[in-house]
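Here comes an entry:

___
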Amino acid sequence: MSKNSVSEQTESQALEIAKATQRPNQSKGQTKQIAKGVEKGIAEYKKRQKAKARELDKKRKKLDAKQESLQQSEIQDELQSKKQRTMQASDTGSPHYYTSFAYIMLILCLSWMAFHMITVH
């Protein structure tokens, strides 16, 4: 099928339309010419619809890309704000502050357990 040829389905549709609108004294040649005109019209319509579909698809892809980039920037903003909150929370002292606190709590728990064991027995 070459680029200018029309599908058999389009040809049969055009012929059906031409026969449906046929006048009483119209020759077969005239009907065929009408069918060719209808065929061209159908082909032009399909061509325009395909062009519209391509254009809509391009727009949809652009919108999808914009939406994805917005989501990525929102995620990055959220991560940045979490990082800032974490840094603000850790401003209470040196980085060893939490480690020292954990050791103190461990010693406190162990001494309480030892005291409890001595007083129970």
